[in-house]
Design a protein that fits this description.
mainly beta, Methylamine Dehydrogenase, Chain H, 5-stranded mixed beta sheet
Length: 414
């Protein structure tokens, strides 16, 4: 890679921008944002983006991306004009093995395309796949195609169950969560959350508790979680508080929103805590309750209480995962942040654009994070930052990112 003028400008301006952002965020978190009197940093490289993107494509064709990345560390802000009309959501990320994951592009109301990512190489899967899910334990995969959902033991393993869909067959699938034994699954849609088994397609959220005649289960911000041992289900959406259910879908407790709209939920890796996030515009509040409270939980909305732990008071959470020791949550601003069960922030790391999906390797060393920008990131956790362009204090090494954009002839690796 020649040491050209554009390379020098990209590198020096990017380094300066990252340094200034990190300085500002460090100050704001330690002293309060109302105390910050400096100017907001500005990344002025957008005029270089098209040329750098063309150089990136050349590097991909020449199999020279490692060298390219050294001279042109990736950035989010300058390339916003490039992906404004090309971006697409990347969702349903699931770890398979080693450096291999499955993921899908497109939202529940769009035509999806599923892919395998294996050691940096991307392969298209069957175009009829509408959604992919994975169990919390047991390595069970669910693959939805028109009218049916097939359950496999292992990604390339035996078919162990199959559900023919009737009343839910035409619904766009937001999320699929099979149970650890493959006997049933959670089907999350914008027209209700269902518990699917051989005997029924049971609507478990929302409930028509007042028996209204014109009632429909039409919802927004639909979200659900399944405990790792499958003993508990959590469900919620914009208009209904989070509820905790038993494995048959019966209500055990409720958790009122501490911000405006229930938006996300996640069980800790050991199931000792359930966290729920509610949002207002681009911000939100995440709280956690302990497992001995699941049965009979009755957390009042907008009420400070000793019955829950405040995990975070800033993020509108879109995606997350749990390690043995902490949560990793992705927000509307493009940050991923780690919190322990007491609400201590352990680190933050900026990727850019609203986070849309996340999965973690079984050894907890590799994290894949996707965004609505149409970019998928592969990070080595705690390996050390790769360069001086990293925004955030997370000590992580981005191995590469993939630009999976609409109307592009191929996926570009950066």
């Amino acid at each position: 890679m020649q040491n050209t003028k554009i390379q020098e400008e990209w590198f020096s301006k990017g380094e300066q921008y990252a340094t200034e952002v990190n300085k500002m965020v460090d100050f704001g978190e330690k002293n309060g944002w109302d105390k910050w009197k400096g100017k907001d940093p500005e990344d002025t490289r957008s005029d270089l983006a098209e040329e750098v993107f063309n150089l990136l494509k050349t590097a991909n064709r020449n199999n020279d991306t490692e060298n390219f990345r050294e001279f042109f560390p990736p950035a989010h802000t300058p390339i916003i004009p490039l992906f404004e009309n090309r971006s697409q959501s990347i969702e349903q990320l699931h770890f398979i093995s080693d450096q291999k994951i499955v993921f899908a592009t497109g939202t529940s109301y769009e035509k999806r395309q599923a892919y395998l990512l294996d050691h940096g190489q991307v392969t298209e899967l069957d175009e009829n796949i509408q959604a992919v899910g994975k169990s919390k334990q047991g390595n069970i995969f669910a693959i939805a195609k028109p009218g049916k959902i097939s359950i496999y033991k292992g990604w390339d393993g035996d078919l162990i169950n199959e559900f023919q869909l009737n009343e839910t067959s035409e619904l766009g699938i937001t999320n699929l969560i099979p149970f650890n034994d493959g006997s049933k699954l959670l089907l999350v849609t914008s027209f209700g959350i269902y518990l699917i088994s051989q005997k029924e397609e049971k609507l478990i959220h929302p409930l028509n508790e007042d028996n209204e005649e014109d009632w429909t289960p039409d919802i927004d911000m639909e979200n659900a979680g399944l405990s790792n041992d499958n003993s508990y289900i959590a469900v919620g959406d914009q208009s209904y508080d989070h509820r905790i259910l038993d494995p048959e879908g019966n209500t055990l407790g409720s958790i009122g929103a501490q911000s405006s709209y229930p938006h996300f939920c996640l069980f800790s890796k050991d199931d000792s805590q359930l966290i729920t996030n509610s949002c207002h515009f681009y911000n939100g509040i995440t709280i956690g309750i302990n497992s001995d409270q699941y049965v009979g939980a009755n957390i009042e909305a907008y009420t400070e209480s000793d019955e829950y732990t405040v995990i975070d008071e800033e993020m509108r959470v879109y995606a997350g995962t749990a390690t043995q020791d902490y949560y990793i949550l992705g927000d509307a601003y493009g940050y991923i942040k780690a919190f322990d069960k007491e609400g201590k922030q352990l680190w933050r790391y900026f990727l850019g654009s609203t986070i849309s999906g996340m999965t973690l390797s079984d050894d907890e060393k590799t994290l894949w994070v996707a965004a609505h920008s149409g970019i998928l990131h592969q990070l080595k956790l705690d390996k050390g930052q790769r360069d001086t362009h990293t925004i955030g204090n997370g000590n992580h090494y981005e191995e590469f990112r993939l630009l999976i954009w609409k109307d592009e002839p191929q996926i570009w690796k950066w």
